[in-house]
Amino acid sequence: MKRMCWISTSIVTLLMLVGCSVSAPKGILPVSQFELQDYLGKWYEIARLDHSFERGLSNVTAEYSMRDDGGVKVVNRGYSEEEQAWQEAEGKAYFVEDPNTGHLKVSFFGPFYGAYVIFNLDQDYEYSLIAGPDHSYFWLLSRTPTISKDKQAELIAKAEAAGFDTDKLIFVDQGMHQD
């Protein structure tokens, strides 16, 4: 029953995104010279702004792989301590502009898309800062479950400079529950 509530909440949240644009938030520029092949694979969520569809989840990851239609398969996964169970959502993403610009539209529910804007990405594709359709959507991703305090502070400062309310960040427990 709780799983159905999570799915229902996710659907409602995604429906609310319909009113949102797949445009980047004001003042946010997607990275250029983006290489999708280097971005594919597993990313760990280090920090995020709160949203109902991820509330209470730990060990959150996003895994990106190619779809047969040229898009990107997106699998978001997290552990709900309350339910003592893993939750997973599968979506699809497509480039908004061109494949060399880190600006995609992502959908987890039918024809409804929201913005996925990569606005900061190190040259080794180890750390990524992501915006949604406005400044209330933000994620700090890493290729590893933890990052150094110095690197975390550096990336959070970049997010704050880009207009995100970093005082409201949730730092994700990546304690790794067993499947």
Automatic annotation (TrEMBL):
Residues 35-174 form the Lipocalin/cytosolic fatty-acid binding domain. Keywords: Cell outer membrane, Lipid-binding, Lipoprotein, Membrane, Palmitate, Signal. Homodimer. It is found in: Cell outer membrane. GO terms for molecular function: lipid binding. This is Outer membrane lipoprotein Blc. It comes from Marinomonas fungiae. One of its GO terms (biological process) is response to stress. InterPro entries: Calycin, Lipocalin_ApoD, Lipocalin_bac, Lipocalin_Blc-like_dom, Lipocalin_CS, Lipocln_cytosolic_FA-bd_dom. Residues 1-24 form the signal peptide. Belongs to the calycin superfamily. Lipocalin family. It comes from the Bacteria. One of its GO terms (cellular component) is cell outer membrane.
